[in-house]
Amino acid sequence: MFSLPHVWSSLVDAVSTHAVAPALDVLHLGKLSGDPRDIAAALLIAALQIAIITCLFRPLETFFPAEKWTDRKLTLPDRNYTLAMLLGIFPLFTYLILMPFSNLFGGGDASTASTGSSLALTTWMPWFDAHPYVLFGTYYVIYDFVYYWMHRTQHAIPWWWALHSMHHSTHQMSCWTNDRGSLVDGFIQSMILAVVGLVIGVDPDEFAWLMLIGELVQNLSHTNTRLGFGRVFNHCFVDPKFHRLHHMLIDPDRPQLHNCNFGQVFSIWDVIFGTALYGEPPRPTGVGDPVVDADNRCGVIGLQWVSFKRFWASVWCLAGWKPGEVAFDPVDLHPVPVSELDVHALAAHQPGATTGHPAPTAATDKPVTA
């Protein structure tokens, strides 16, 4: 009888035995703490994610674009970075850091309850043991709630914005943009979410699937499409129209408008905490800060370098720790409060102003809803 879990386990075993383990031996990493099956599972999940992005989300950009581009040149670094992250960096990170870290606290030990945490949900409510799908759903609600507040903090603390701003700098937000980000930023996010997962009792396999669901929804929400979930469901779940407003350029007449729509999967957090924005037309994406806008001139390696320089300059000065919206000084890269700047001058840095690429235009067809 066909069993999806059995098929998945067999695929993981095959990839682990015939690909991962030999590769780790060649790299002299085989004796490090961790199970090669974990990295095999991460690779298979990454392959599944890339297939969904390519076969489902990318066609939406062709047939139902939110913005019409004369070329997609600026999406290439994002696509390359996505492939590097999903097929290399994240699986290795999972194997070399997250899984040994989990094992240190009891994770991965089948003889313990979940991760062995005294705060695990199954410890407090043994009822969950008999209802694994309800337990997984509860894990995800907690995970998404933590992500919402983490995301708001990325925008509020200047040194963290120095890293996260690279994600927002793109003029061509697409299905590949989700993984456009600083490795330092990714490390911080992964460790926060991993710690939360360990505390509430998420085992490594469940954590991988939590990450996949969150990443796929973010791949969809970054897609250059007019797809929406309708007036009811878009108040519960993040759709591309909702998240595009989070990435919109600063409006000098309403300078706080873009501080909205921080949710990852559930837009309900934005509704509850007053950060939800609906009803605005599609807008060009990017940032007004010319220092960050210059990221669009960089490739994969250059993006990492310029965002790290902003971070390094910010984390060592007092202004880098004072909450508030900032731009960066073009000379020393120190954060400067936006309240001290000419917002209209910042808004003048529209897409194409520093790269020679023409500004995108919003598609004029009626919104597509589902």
Summary keywords:
370 residues, mainly alpha, two-stranded antiparallel ribbon, two-stranded parallel ribbon, 6 strands
Q: What would your notes on this structure say?
A:
- 53% of the residues lie in helices and 4% in strands.
- The protein is mainly alpha-helical and 370 residues long.
- The protein has one domain (4-369).
- The strands form three sheets. It has a two-stranded antiparallel ribbon.
- A hairpin with a 6-residue loop joins strand 3 and strand 4 (335-337).
- The longest helix is centred in the first third of the chain and has 29 residues, at 76-104.
- The chain is globular and about 60 Å long.
Please outline what is shown here.
With 370 residues, the protein is mainly alpha-helical. It is built from 14 helices and six strands. The strands form three sheets. It has a two-stranded antiparallel sheet with strand order 1-5. The protein has a two-stranded parallel sheet with strand order 2-6.
Task: Give me the Rg, rounded.
Answer: 21 Å
The level of helicity is 40-55%
The proportion of residues in beta strands is: under 5%
Order of helices and strands: HHEHHHHHHEHHHHHEEHEE
Q: Given the helix and strand composition, which structural class is it?
A: mainly alpha
Distance between the termini: 35 Å
The total tally of domains equals 1
Assign an overall shape: globular
| Biggest sheet strand line-up | 1-5
Largest sheet: 2 strands, antiparallel
Unreliable stretches covering 5 or more consecutive residues: 108-113, 352-360, 364-370
SS field, number of helical segments: 14
